Amino acid sequence: MFPTSETSLRAAVILGLLAASPQGFAISTLKVPLKSTIAPKMANLFNASAPLTNAALKVVATVQAGDNQTFSDVLVDTGSAILWVGGQQKYIPGADTRVINETFSVGYGAGGVNGTAYLDRVTVGEATVSSQIIGSAGYMEGFSLVEPIDGIIGLGPSGSNYGEVSGHNTTRTFVENLVAEGTISHPVFGIYVSPLSESGIPEGTGEITFGGVDQSRISGDITWLPQNDPVDFHWEFNASSFSWGDKVLATGPIYSRTDTGVLPIAVPYDAFFAILDDVPGASLDESSAIAGSITLPANVTVDSLPAMEIGIGNLNFTIPASKYIVPTSLHTTLNITDNLVHTWIMSGGPGAFDLGQKFLENAYSAYDMENHLVGFAYLA
């Protein structure tokens, strides 16, 4: 499904703002460097029963808060909307901290956290909010695959943190507070996730741009799509197609979401099993940290495999086999003990994509909280 005429008009207006001259719009954008890294403790703390979230690669930012503290391993998560710290070093209230006598509690696919909520001055990269609700972790469980973890900065849609802070129905996200305090003009942000090389080494530095998008990161225009209802849940939209080589395995509308907090490219259920049927000897990983993903026979080569293509709006993102094959250098970290060819491909459920980090390494994504739009562009 494509935008209605009204949504198309809104998207055109937003696109015009994002493409404006520096004097017109870019003066109110702020950039935050992101680091893509392998979770170093993962091999030692592997638990086959643990849910898969950020199994090998985590995207982190640095947050400053509390008593002049720096929390350097804060996961960036578009699938949640609460900011909390204290996972490694204890959060200590500082001169700018205000006690509000409230608590917070958040559940994730990878675990959960609860503790005390405060108002504090919080800085993420170049962006500072003088009065942000921030959680101080008191109890955590289930995050062993991404340790060390200092916290999570949730960049989900407005209203998607319902009931997670006591005394509040919902609370403003970091992006909403940047707008409320006049730091940026629009509740829009763009994300560039730096990829892993074929040898499993992070290439360069990723980036969040608050208040707009970074035109230097993209090629061509951003395609904006309307969020699916309810808009206060996840960054969900409809993709248009999915192909495996020259075979079209799904056509739109395909219910989809992006999530920087998960790792795989999860494709529609029927397409997932069509891939299994297409490659002789393909099977499911049953024991590693990416259990549930597709594995291929040891004699399969990158050159013998087709590319995947995901259609979003008028864009087609091609993901070659070299990008969906797990580098052998990561096998030990992922507790892979066989000699099979492993992939980042999983099932997203009936008729649904869940486009995690391995997809987002191949696309620039943008999010408009005011007009309820999700945007994509080719990388420069």
From TrEMBL:
Superkingdom field: Eukaryota
CDD domains tied to this protein: pepsin_like (cd05471)
Record's keyword terms, sorted: Hydrolase, Protease, Signal
Start and end residues of each Peptidase A1 domain: 59-377
UniProt record, GO biological process: proteolysis
One MF term in the entry's GO annotations: aspartic-type endopeptidase activity
Keyword flag Nucleotidyltransferase: no
Signal peptide: 1-26
Family label: Belongs to the peptidase A1 family.
Name the record gives this protein: Acid protease
